[in-house]
Amino acid sequence: MNSLVLIGVVLLGCIGLAIAAALLYTPSQPAVQRRLTPFAVLPVPEDTPAVRAFLHELAAQVAWMDASVLRSVILVYPEKAPAVQALCEEMAQNYEVFMAMSFAQVTAVVEKELDAP
After folding, report:
1. Measured over all CA atoms, what is the biggest interatomic distance in the chain, rounded to whole angstroms?
2. In the predicted model, what is the mean pLDDT of the chain?
3. 13-32 burial by CB neighbour count: b if 16+ within 10 A, else e?
């Protein structure tokens, strides 16, 4: 009986040492680099039926695309074009892949990103 207890203690000790060794000598994970979310920037020059149809088709294609390839599309409109701005904002409300921004807003975001460490 004593030999069974001794074998059990030795086995438990070996298992404990193996776990401790695995925890102590496991190499640390390398630091994860900061990666941008896959996105595209699309300037929208005018509000025409052809542009509207293209944006609907693009939204359907992006929905089928792998998120590691493309996750969102920023629709950039000129500051002094309210019809184009309305189109971009409407598309952003209808499709979650679109974001509507003016040219000045996109420029500010890019400059902020370039200044970040």
Report:
1. 91
2. 82
3. eeeeeeeeeeeeeeeeeeee
